[in-house]
# Entry
Amino acid sequence: MHAEYGLVVFDSTHEAIKTETLAKNNHFHARLIGTPGKIVAGCGLSLRFEMDDTNQLKKLLDDNNVSYKGFYHALRDGIKSSYTVIK
# Structure
């Protein structure tokens, strides 16, 4: 199975939950997931979203003063996954 998606990684659970609410209220297809072990983050939660929404989601978070650790591009092919910082 091949999958490509974006992740927003957080240091704070509060910011992760706030982001999920903002994303859903603004009609983004997004959900909270556990942060993959290959990515180091403080709270262990990340927002999974569609890659096409990267710029709009970043603008939404910046406009709402949401603190995040970074944006990642995730690729999964079978059981192999890779993550690249994009923002």
In short: The CA atoms of residues 17 and 50 lie 18 Å apart. The chain has two helices and five strands. The chain has a mean pLDDT of 95. The radius of gyration is 12 Å.
